[in-house]
Batch of 2 targets.
Target 1
Amino acid sequence: MADYLLSMMTFFPLLGILILLFLPRDNGGLLKGFTLAVSLVTFAISLPLAFDNVFTTSGGMHYREFSEWINIGNFFQMNYNIGVDGISLWLVMLTTFITPITVLSTWNAVDKNIKGFMAMLLLLETGMLGAFISLDLFLFYIFWELMLIPMYFLIGIWGGKNRIYAAVKFFIYTAVGSLLMLVAIIFVYYFAQQSGALTNGFGIQELYKLDLPYNAQFWLFLAFGFSFAIKVPMFPLHTWLPDAHTEAPTAGSVILAAVLLKMGTYGYVRFAMPMFPDALPTFIPFLAFLSVVGIIYGSLVAMMQDDIKKLVAYSSVAHLGFVMLGVFALNLQGLAGGMIQMINHGISTGALFLIVGFLYERRHTRLITEFGGVATKMPIFATMFMIVTFSSIGLPGTNGFVGEFLALMGAFQSSLRWYAVFATSGVILAAVYMLWVYQRVMFGKVTNPENEKLKDLSVREIVIMLPLLLFIFWIGVAPNTFFSKMNPAMELMLERMGADKVAVVEMHQPAAAGHASGHATDHK
Amino acid sequence: MENLVQEAIQNVNLQAIMPSLVLCVFGMAILMVSVFSKRGSTTHVAWLSIAALVVTGFVTLTGWNNPQAGFAGSVLFDNFATFFSMICIIAAGLTILMSDDYLKREGFPVSEYYPLILFTTAGAMWMASGTDLMTIFLGLEVLSVSLYVLAGFFRNQTRSNEAGLKYFFLGAFSTGFLLYGVALLYGVTGTTKVEGIAAYVSANPAAAMNTMFIAGGALLLIGFLFKVAAAPFHMWTPDVYQGAPTPITAFMSAGPKAAAFAALMRVTIIGLDGLQSELTTLFWILAVLTMTVGNFIALSQKDLKRMLAYSSISHAGYALVGIVAWNQIGLSAIMFYMLVYTFMNMGAFAVLVLIGKQGEDNLTLDGVAGLGYKKPILGIVLSIFLFSLMGLPPTAGFTAKFYIFAGAIEAGYIWLAVLGVLNSAVSLYYYLRVMVQMYFKDPEEDFAWVTINTPVAISIAISVVGVLYLGIFPNSLMNLAKLAGF
């Protein structure tokens, strides 16, 4: 079984869709229950990965599966080539973990065409998992594009009132980026073929070793980077995000925030940066600058929103800025911070969207001014919202602190010192907009009579939130559970990114970094 | 000339024309059957025609890896011809499957319709297997004349009349150009054989720069480019595609277009090889122009048939990229692309055939509002075809586009590939608009008139399977396309 674990995990949701199609259309409970079961089984299949200690010792790919797929002789060759390492491990787990939660969150929220909705959710899960485990660029591209279709329908059919605009904008932004990446993928392939370095189709492990001339790396990084930057999204390519998030149904927003945005950052770490290391020094100052602009701009715009969901959407732009800044530091602290911040953002922003969803399902509005004094009516909700807010701000003891602290520290110790200094202001701004919205929504007197009748969270809603809260504290208090399995893979990856070329002055960094991250955790 | 005729007679090789021969004999027999059939009863003629195509398909397949030359080198039925002939046979079969109920709905159940499709297919096969410009011309004429009739088949509908007439006038002009080109080339090189022209040019390199030779080549190309609807010779396409009976529109966009590409490829890559550097530049411009014109005008179309007509222009542009590449990958990619395009485009038209009302005035963007809810299966399959036309994985449209752009990049035309994918990005918008209407708008109609009958369902099923199979497991057909290159 372990031999095919990744395939089973990836395609189990697809199998679920096939059965789903034959279930009666009108029985909403059955459809939702079945989808929940499928997503829980998928989670169960993926669970052995999280407990496998092989990741703590080896940074290479594990659970490899390989079979020949397309082979047109000397024309081109693609393989079904998958595997997982410390970098993709937690993202895979995040995906299988968050999907059942989103299914549960739809229980009362979706009543139109439930079958279609559930099929789209499962298709999305297959696409996301496939993209994280692909080791063949061509295969990656297929899964990458496959994610687009269900998300487009999720926003367009079950979204808010501007859903069509948001769905089309989301689709076209993402597709334009990926089409350019396609040209770059083909180019890399033929370059590798002509230089005789190619033995294994579009396998990235061979492509890592490719010694491309700087000039080619420059353009290729631009193409890959552009595509991933749209998905992250980095300023100024972020404009699709607030629209998509605001219009998407809660489940769509949660998946979009928790997993889909990670595709962009993951793409940088897995593909763009290690494949084109020579072009990195040219682009890093520029990309780091955009990350910092994203952090500050996202925070400032979030502050000014009167719609809670839009506020959370803009806060994503800021949070992803921290991730990118950490990754671009090209040292172990920075990368570790960035990677763990990806998971953190998935958990806390996912939770925030669920919280917005709870409010919206009760009041059918998301305007901050409509609320006030909700804490007195919904004490459990208030507690949970408070914890998630702290996590989003990055309060010590929660997961957000670990990620942001390491990312900023990594950046500070690298050539990006001044960027880190400016980025730190984002932490303060985050406290401002999150606490302010919490205060306006939760505290004070109930001014709006509509809020008098608010019911506190139901058992189902508490069940949805508890696992997320668990991980907020777990990562906050004992992040080494996660770091220990990421470290070997990250060190390997940093080597590939040619970290030595960028940070020559910090030759001893990796060793010190391991110590520092351990140190940082000891104190919590 | 007399020697030529004698040589040809001594070189008779019926094997080389067997598939088209079988098809023509069947066509004439079916024509007789329809003469003696009761007026208005066409179903048995349709099934007979399908049987004829199946038989022809098997006969054609015997030509695989068994190249047959004949008639003094004016016909060569090789893998290349087999591949393209099969595309045309599939296209014709799908057309016939979606036609029968359509003809009855439009009030024009005339059985001559089916033999005409068979003759068109036979003409297409001559174009694909012709190695002499005269053979190719003959095929082109047989194909065109049948299509003129088919395009204007609904003689009581103004739109259909307009389509037939327009196609006939412009088509006659383009054939004239082509023939003039053949004459000029003959004047310079003293032969009409494709190989002969190439041999003459390689023996006398100066001839390639001869004004008469260039003029002849250009006129010849215009004739073919008109048939593949490449800009700037695309003007006839929207009106003809919109006015012709929908199955015929589907057919024209797949079968005859593939045949025209076959002839274009053989004539340019083999015959005009001496002009390679000039021609690649020319085709570079034509490819970009064609896809850009097609995509940008499609953006503003409200009528679905017209939109698909412009989309078909843009797809011809993508296929031309394969000729620019001028390498093995590019050539095989065109073949694969034409096969995939046959499935995805004919599938989309088959759905339109089903949802159209009599007169087809409802085949507009607004007309499909809410289709995805009222007819879920039709909605899903049309979405699959549209995603494939966009070139999104895991559909065949993606693998085909990948193949084409791989050829261009391998040959070093990176900017062409970039312009190609940017064009694909533009095309997303108008394909998405159809899906927006189908799924994101509330139904205005109940689509109660849509009845799914078996033959159309079969043709849609074949297309869906083709699009998904070639999208996920393209290996086998891609390899066949590789072997079919010359």
Target 2
Amino acid sequence: MKQLFTISGYLAIKEILHNKGRFLLVSMVIGLITLLVLFIAALGEGLGNGNREYISKLDAQLIAYQAKSDNLIGASRLSKNRLADIRRVEGVADAGMLGTSNATLILADGEAPLKVALLGVEPGHTGEPPVVEGQQLRSNLAKEVIIDKSTALRSGLQVGDAIVLRTTQGTDDKFHDLKVVGIADGQQYSLQPSVFAPFNTWDQIRPKSAAELNVPNPIPNVILIKLVDPALTELAQQRIAAEVNNVDTATIQQAIQALPGYSAQQSTLNTQGGFTLFIGILVIGGFFQIQILQKVSQIGVLKAIGTANPVVAWAAIFQIIIITIVGVVIGGLFTFLFSLTFPPTVPIVFNGTTSAVALAALLIIGPLGGLVSIRYAVRIEPLKALGLSS
Amino acid sequence: MNETPASNYALETRSVIKSYETDYGIIQAVDDVSLHVTAGEFVALVGPSGSGKTTMLSILAALLQPSSGRILLDGMDLSSMGDKERVKMRREKIGFTFQANNLVPYLTAVENVELMLRLNNKLDKTGKLRARELLARLGLGERLHNYPGQMSGGQQQRVAIARALIHNPSLVLADEPTASLDTERAFQVVETFAGLIHEQNRAGIMVTHDLRMCEFVDRVLLMQDGKLVNIYSTHDEIMDLARGGKH
């Protein structure tokens, strides 16, 4: 076995070194495919992350929606009574209201206003993001907010800064003065940077429909539920269904999949990534097939002088592996350099796991693409290749 | 299983037949050919186009299985071997030079010669030295590190001869080794080839259409229509043939 790998490795490397230009060209093509695949993966991750970041980081296991709202946060309305009912269910450690809305952050010095997700959370309860700088919200009526890292990056705001939020009620613009008391890590919601206000403050400043204007108690969209034992989600769901009227519950994962456009967006990007990999297979397969066709007589000579088929096959496999690795490394470096040039507003996130999966897929497509050519090389008849069969 | 009587020759064929089925019926490319070559003997296989000499050479090189008959190389029967065993025989017992495109283009002259030792897992210091010495003897001492593309046709043929001999094979085969060479180079190549066959005590067979090259061989085997029709074994007969005799 060692002899097989030594001789095939020797032939593979010698040929690559002798034809550096040709092999480098293919590596560059694989590099470009790598760049494309990594960017599509990063875009998928970035867009997905922008959609689900806040939900996926919640310290909660279940989300309660208004019944028959199809797990759509924006379509769900719950009364405050439901919160009390859910908190009473056995196995529920905590529950917090979440209200979602949109607002515009007015920035100083003529900078373009920043559209943000305005989220109402209960201070001290599930749903309030932990700050990495500053302090948590103090009370439900405090005129203060926590901004997420994404908002801080785009606006330049710091802890202690005063901000003005603009909301539109009917046809009137309303301006609200608030103070930044804390900055949380990335908590984007619905592809927007987030601003977290205490629940009652949120209810006062958010745009309301005509029907909501006269409702005395603030109405959350959903209730975020933290369980005593996170492993018992199913049991908790059954209990909530039995004890609380007019609510549906979903796990965090189900809630993410139900986010508007999330599944369609991810499947589109995954399909794009898959097709790019498929094109990669065709490109690598095509190159090696042409290369094998060009050296039929050379392989014929090797076989005629006693080179065994496994040596011929492994030499081809080694070449494919080497140029694929070189291509992927080149592509990885290009991707890294490009990624440095993107502003934070571009939704591209190089997640370790996603990138690793994309890189592993790229490393697999090389040998996969070369399979046909390897089979062809093994089947070359030395007699025919040398023109001795006539 | 048929018992094969032992052979005293380096190479011996017994009633070898190779037939093909075509649209026009069965063609006997090689028809009942029995021949033998002793160690240290250099034999030319000649004949007109279509006489079956290339088919015979392919059978002797373990590249083609005969329809029937025996091919004994060092007493081992090639005709009864499977694919893997025949590849092993080609690697260990047979040296081969072809008409053209003999060499691996991405290996230098010395690497091409060493390749046979690598394939046989016998590339050591002594082997490397022998490869260099052999090439130097063939007048390629200055071309050791040249790639085939940097050498003339004659130089490439000489590298191929060195490769065919380096691993001490029992049988050395050459298929039209002078086909792409001018007359002067052709004579040089065959003379060197013959000299090494004799000196290293190998059994050598050269297929050629150029009867002038027979000047350097010990016997000439004439094939026609797949049959071995004549054998020239005296010096005078061979020289007559080489000086312009006809098949």
